[in-house]
Design goal:
By secondary structure, this protein is an alpha+beta fold. Helices cover 32% and strands 20% of the residues. A three-stranded antiparallel β-sheet has the order 4-3-5. It has a two-stranded antiparallel sheet with strand order 1-2. The protein is globular, with a radius of gyration of 15 Å. The termini are far apart.
Length: 99
């Protein structure tokens, strides 16, 4: 035996809010389009992406740290209203699924 496993390695990304590494499929990809942060759950939108846990705590940390403009390398603030709604909805679904 060669010692190799047949399990595929799962790519990891860093949450821009809490700065913890997690599996790519556990994080929400975000893309900056025309001055606003847009969620990209399928991971197919063009452009530079940033990742955040789909939790309001991590989202608030990222806003407080001004992580989104830095991650996307843009000047000035970005509109995060749509992203906030998406994170709140994902957190609500996660809480309902947990008994």
């Amino acid at each position: 035996m060669s010692g190799r496993t047949h399990a595929r390695a799962c790519p990891e990304r860093t949450c821009v809010g809490c700065r913890e590494r997690a599996a790519k499929n556990e994080l929400l990809r975000i893309v900056a389009i025309e001055g606003s942060c847009v969620p990209d759950p399928s991971g197919t939108l063009p452009g530079r992406g940033a990742y955040v846990h789909p939790a309001l705590v991590c989202f608030e940390l990222a806003l407080r740290r001004r992580a989104f403009p830095r991650a996307f390398r843009v000047q000035g603030p970005l509109d995060t209203a749509e992203l906030r709604r998406n994170v709140e909805a994902a957190e609500t679904v996660a809480q309902e699924a947990t008994p």
